[in-house]
Write a structure and sequence with these properties.
By secondary structure, the protein is of the alpha+beta class. It has 3 domains: 38 residues; 103 residues, Apc35880, domain 1 (Alpha-Beta Plaits, 2-Layer Sandwich); 90 residues, 2-Layer Sandwich (Alpha-Beta Plaits). A hairpin with an 8-residue loop joins β6 and β7.
Length: 266
């Protein structure tokens, strides 16, 4: 074999080897990406648009005259209505904490009609004849404008229910929305960093624009009310607080399942 032919053959083998190595790297890369995709969590409710209804009620004093056994049976009736619905649900007692509400039913669903249906069925129960709504707030989930890479809403992202929830409507001034986006983002970055100092406080931010009176509904969940209070006090000192128009009523609820909640009302 001539020198030129041998040189050509060596170059060809070198090219083939490089091509084989490149193909193997590509194959390894594809397999690695497939593993990542396979290990990704399944889509959950937090990735969908979900309506929240925060429904606060008071009990008619006549309820307290009912026999205890009748109250317990009535509580089981309400529990059964909720279990048979397609609506996600949490309940909290506000008994003794305010004079305008005694308990909270927090509903979540992709369908407004499903929320209405379960509320209607609750009113048909014996217990439903003795309750009146005092505050009802409607909102829905949306991706955060300012918190990039947010993992979603605490409850819908799979977080366990905490001992306390603090719920309130939140509206910013019109001046806030006239500020440049970059300036708003800078102020919100400060706001977000303070929130990160309190990992024991979980925030559910939902949007009420156009579907209720406020801009947002905020629901903070925590096992430590003192930590939440510290968070709020620190947030009062941020620049964003200059643009807060409404953040009341601020209602604290204590986690309580349906039956003990209803039987605790007297």
């Amino acid at each position: 074999m001539s020198n030129d032919a041998k040189k050509y053959q060596d170059e060809l083998q070198s090219i083939l080897k490089k091509a084989q190595n490149a193909m193997q790297e590509l194959k390894d890369s594809i397999e690695e990406e497939m593993k990542v995709v396979e290990n990704q969590p399944q889509p959950n409710l937090s990735e969908k648009k979900v309506f929240f209804s925060f429904s606060f009620f008071k009990i008619d004093p006549k309820w307290r005259w009912m026999a205890d056994l009748a109250k317990e049976e009535s509580a089981k009736e309400v529990e059964n209505v909720i279990k048979k619905s397609n609506v996600k649900f949490r309940s909290y007692s506000t008994l003794g904490l305010r004079d305008d509400v005694e308990f909270l039913f927090w509903f979540a669903s992709e369908s407004l009609e499903e929320i209405q249906e379960v509320v209607s069925k609750i009113y048909i129960t014996v217990f439903g004849k003795y309750i009146s709504p005092t505050h009802v707030y409607l909102s829905n989930t949306r991706p955060s404008i300012y918190a990039k890479g947010s993992k979603g809403h605490g409850w819908l992202a799979g977080e366990e229910q905490k001992k306390y929830v603090i719920v309130y409507p939140f509206t910013k001034t019109r001046e806030w929305y006239l500020l440049p986006v970059q300036e708003r983002q800078q102020m919100m970055d400060e706001h977000i960093q303070i929130g990160k100092k309190y990992p024991q406080v979980i925030l559910n931010t939902t949007y009420s624009f156009g579907i209720h009176d406020a801009d947002f509904m905020l629901a903070f969940e925590t096992d430590d009310l003192h930590a939440f209070q510290n968070l709020i006090m620190e947030l009062r000192e941020t620049k964003v607080s200059l643009y807060v128009k409404i953040d009341t009523p601020m209602i604290v609820g204590v986690k309580k399942d349906i039956i003990p909640l209803i039987t605790s009302l007297g």
